[in-house]
Amino acid sequence: MYEAVELRDGDKGKYLGHGVSRAVKNINEKISEALIGLDPIHQYQIDQALLDLDKTENKADLGANAILAVSIAACKAGAAEKEVPLYKHIADISGNTGLLLPVPAFSVISGGKHAGNSLSVQGIMILPTGANTFEEAMQMGSETYHHLKAVITEKYGADACNVGEDGGFAPNISSFKDGLDLVNEAIERTGYNERIKIAMDVAATEFCIGTKYDLDIKSPNKSGQNFKSGEDMIGMYTQLCTDYPIVSIEEPFDKEDWENTKLFSSLGICQVVGDNLLASNLKRIERAIHESTCNALLLKLNQIGTVTEAIEVVKLAKDANWGIVVSQRSGETEDSFIADLAVGLATGQIKAGAPCRGERLAKYNQLLRIEEELGDQADYAGERWRLS
Ligand code: PGA
Q1: Which of 75, 159, 289, 302 is the most buried (most CB within 10 A)?
Q2: Is 201 in the pocket of ligand 1 (CB under 6 A)?
């Protein structure tokens, strides 16, 4: 609801209404006319021209999909013109001096809207915080993922190993605890133990009914029987963080439930990440900082719509001493821009899905390339990954 508008054609007879020919036309006509002659090195100027052309607050006129595509293309062109790597160009335009390889949050169990199982939580992730390099993090994450496949196969059979939108396995479990137990067992099998931490993307907005949370919303026979209040949810999260090595919980409450999000954050138990709550939107982030609602930003580029605005909100979050997680979308492409963005802005964390499916691996492969290119200069965020 608070995201920048993704312009779709709406013609149900074509691509079920999801076509983007209007957005493409906007690029080829209105946008190209406004930008021809500008220098892509000056990202701010390009993005300002795009905003001036659109004029709406949520990019509804041209479409954030049209605007962001051009903003990213200009950024890549700027790097090419300067003959520097993209992450370096992003660091330059943002004024950031220290490049940093992020800790990856690999989705390993998928639920919520990302999978057809009965699990209400959208994702369980593993974070190789104890790795020394990104390459090692990749190895640790991949090995754990494949151990998890074996654990799930043993318990639920091979057909429980189909994957969800972001590549996590989607066994037909319904409780958070069952998912966490599977992941814990996989971590134990790798022997990495405390070098791998767990994060959850609850996406609670999807199962909030009024002021209550329906944990069994996806189990048709049980839906409505497991309603939890905000207070119950805080109790549940607190217990889970004691029982499992959970260091981060994303969207623990509904996007309008500022009060419970703040209450939970104030306990200081783990990183509390705002996704739908913040929608990468400047005003909502300012409010959350002012009210101490959460302590980390989930940055989704197409929620905000231009590279310049993404840099602005990252700066805001950094000044507030928040954690920053650059994020995928569930519907992804093979574009790997967010990998360079995470390094160039030194965000310290990236969530790009499982170590599986090409559109997810495109980001991780780019991070491997960047680390290789940086050689001795490469710095992995694991060591300094701290909770606010
Ligand atoms: P989305 O979320 O389904 O809104 O794209 C993806 C995510 O948070 O990982």
Answers
A1: 75
A2: yes
